[in-house]
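ARCHIVE CARD
Drawer: 12
Card no.: 0347
Subject: one protein chain, sequence and derived structure
Cross-reference: see card 0346
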Amino acid sequence: MLLDQNAMMSDKQAVTASAASDNVIDLGAAGNAVPGALFAVGRVEEAFEGVTQLEVSLQTDNSAEFSAAEELMRVSFEAADLTDAKTLFALVVPNGAKRFLRAYYTVQGSGSAGKLSCFLTDAVDMK
């Protein structure tokens, strides 16, 4: 799978407390009109410690400040899912995207370690 740095919401981002992704993706004026299916992919890059549950939501807004953010999708993971480097999810981005996209991480527990990458791609490795 080829990755485009412009499609990275998080690149090995430390996620030990609830926070937005380091990067925001600007789809331009096209918004939902991006041709073809896009996949949101989340990957554990470093095992999590102290986190009992992690929710990842894909948010969209017309503003890069996400003052009126809307959730496009959400997935949840328990501590046992976060211990090894692996792909957590690869889901088709649903219709309804506005100009900007970001990931938002909601952490339960007191995290002391854990890194995550989250990005968009048009093809997913089937490993």
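Annotation on reverse: The first strand starts at residue 8 and ends at 14. Residues 53 and 108 are 5 Å apart (CA to CA).
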